[in-house]
Specification:
Largest sheet: 2 strands, antiparallel
Order of helices and strands: HHHHHHEEHHEHHHHHEHHH
Radius of gyration: 27 Å
Number of helices: 16
Helix content: 55-70%
Structural class: mainly alpha
Length: 379
């Protein structure tokens, strides 16, 4: 019988959609996938539980504030690194930018000698802060131009800038630090340490800076067009370019933002140490990359969140401070930190394989549905 020869009631009955309750298969909770996707938070909870059981002082209020202060600087640096990694790049120069921006701040507070005018200038604190931030931003801009306009590989461009920025810092100081950066009331440049060492509502200034940077960059990624462009270019640069995304500008801006974050850390570190040393920030880039990777970002780009990066920074910071508290050797600390990074990357690969398998199963299920019944031949 043909469809045309069926009664209207029969056709309507067959056309009715099946009830989703009757046809949908029961959803199963994939505990393995949940554990892999939440690996950073699980690791953080395990670290807290283990060290709290080994030391009664680990969760004391004073120690928590100290640990969070240490975490904050790496977290700010990691947020900038996340921007670059989301784009599929890497920034190895952030540690040197930390040292350079701190040295510039120390030089300005210590007195800037202008030989041509025979003048020793002492800028105000806010001028010092703005110039130091501008220096870090400039380093990031140079990195961005090298990568986006001259097509230099990010690893090579930022590795070269690592040496250049560190060398400039050493030239400025002649290898010696600027110490006792308290300024002079008569010169109007006091307040640098008072500002950076303030603790509003009991939280140190680096913690407030971390909260501010995290909130600002979360809005940038989730609410602004730049965030959509960044995830698009990191996921598939060619497709993003064909869709009209200004990929060159995005590439440049991510390195500018990374340099800005590094400069902010340089200022905070200078205030924390009350001095500016050209060796400050050495190997900071490795901790920042580790925090981003542990937080779930893909080094290939296109995947990562501010929330995950913050958790990754807390994992690194709470782990290291816990090892110090229980008296573990610094050499063992390096080994343990390296092992944690390797495990994080291995779990990331597991997560990608799980996602690929789920996608393949979904595609197979959609393509292997029941064949429609052939229509009956016309009489």
């Amino acid at each position: 019988m043909s469809l045309l020869s069926q009664s209207p009631e029969t056709r309507n009955e067959q056309a009715k959609p099946k009830s989703p309750v009757a046809t949908a298969a029961p959803r199963k909770i994939n505990l393995n996938a949940m554990m892999v996707e939440g690996r950073a938070l699980i690791a953080l909870l395990l670290i807290v539980i283990v060290f709290a059981s080994l030391s009664p002082h680990y969760l004391s209020p004073d120690n928590l504030i100290i640990m969070t202060r240490h975490v904050a600087m790496n977290a700010i640096l990691a947020i900038g690194m996340l921007m670059v990694i989301l784009n599929g790049g890497i920034d190895l120069s952030v540690g040197s930018t930390v040292g350079l921006s701190g040295v510039v701040a120390g030089m300005l507070l210590d007195g800037l000698q202008i030989s041509s005018l025979n003048v020793l200038a002492y800028p105000s604190v806010w001028v010092v802060i703005l110039i130091s931030l501008a220096v870090g931003t400039l380093v990031g801009y140079v990195n961005g131009v090298l990568v986006s306009r001259l097509n230099v590989a990010p690893f090579v461009a930022t590795l070269g800038m690592l040496y250049i920025a560190r060398g400039i810092a050493l030239l400025i100081t002649n290898g010696t630090p600027f110490s006792n950066l308290r300024g002079d009331e008569a010169l109007g440049n006091t307040g640098f340490l008072a500002f950076l060492k303030a603790a509003p509502l009991g939280l140190p200034m680096p913690v407030w800076a971390m909260i501010g940077f995290a909130a600002a960059f979360a809005i940038l990624l989730n609410k602004a067009p730049f965030g959509r462009w960044l995830y698009a270019t990191g996921g598939n640069e060619r497709a993003a370019e064909l869709s009209g995304v200004p990929i060159k500008r995005v590439q440049t801006r991510v390195y500018v933002l990374s340099g800005l974050c590094a400069a902010a850390v340089g200022l905070l570190l200078t205030g924390d140490l009350s001095s500016a040393t050209p060796r400050a920030g050495e190997f900071f880039e490795l901790n920042a990359i580790a925090a981003v990777v542990i937080g779930g970002a893909a080094l290939s780009g296109g995947r990562g969140t501010i929330r995950g990066t913050l958790i990754g920074a807390f994992v690194i910071g709470f782990l290291v401070d816990g090892l110090v508290l229980i008296g573990v050797s610094q050499f063992w600390q390096q080994i343990i930190k390296g092992a944690v990074i390797i495990v994080a990357v291995a779990l990331d690969q597991m997560q990608q394989r799980l996602q690929q398998r789920r996608a393949a199963k979904a595609a197979l299920a959609s393509s292997s549905g029941p064949d429609p019944a052939p229509a009956a031949a016309q009489p």
